[in-house]
């Protein structure tokens, strides 16, 4: 059930990243900008997960917070890269991968916190 919701997002990543992973010549894999992408995505994912978990009906708590946190945070990162490209910058697949890494880390930490506190 969850894979059906995540599949369109994964398809988008597979479609967009090969063309954009090159980025600008100065776009490195590690740097201050990349850490900021990861940290901000982790923070947004945690906030989104915990808010959705608190507001979700009991029967939807198994999948809804994860779906909203991962999907919403990744779409914010994708939108930010789109804004960069529209404002004369470069769409960076590397930034997007750091966004995804932060998203997964923030969601994972939040899920673990909720799991451990409700046991």
Structure, explained:
By secondary structure, this protein is mostly helical. The protein has one domain (31-117). The protein is built from four helices and no strands. Helix 1 packs antiparallel against helix 4 (93-117), helix 2 packs parallel to helix 4 (93-117) and helix 3 (64-86) runs antiparallel to helix 4 (93-117). The longest helix is centred in the C-terminal third of the chain and has 25 residues, at 93-117. 27% of the residues are buried. The mean pLDDT is 82.
Please give a quick description of this structure:
The protein has 119 residues and is mainly alpha-helical.
Layout of strands and helices, then pairs:
Blueprint: H1 2-20, H2 32-55, H3 64-86, H4 93-117
**Class from secondary-structure proportions:** mainly alpha
Cα distance spanning the termini: 24 Å
Q: Assess the beta-strand content as a share of residues.
A: under 5%
Shape: elongated
Task: Give the low-confidence spans.
Answer: none
Determine the fraction of residues in helical runs and give it as a percent range. over 70%
List the domain count as a whole number.
1
Our Rg estimate from Cα atoms comes to 15 Å
Q: Biggest sheet, in brief?
A: none
Overall pLDDT, averaged? 82
Instruction: Spell out the helices and strands N to C.
Output: HHHH
How many strands appear in the DSSP assignment? 0
Number of helices: 4
Features:
119 residues; mainly alpha; elongated
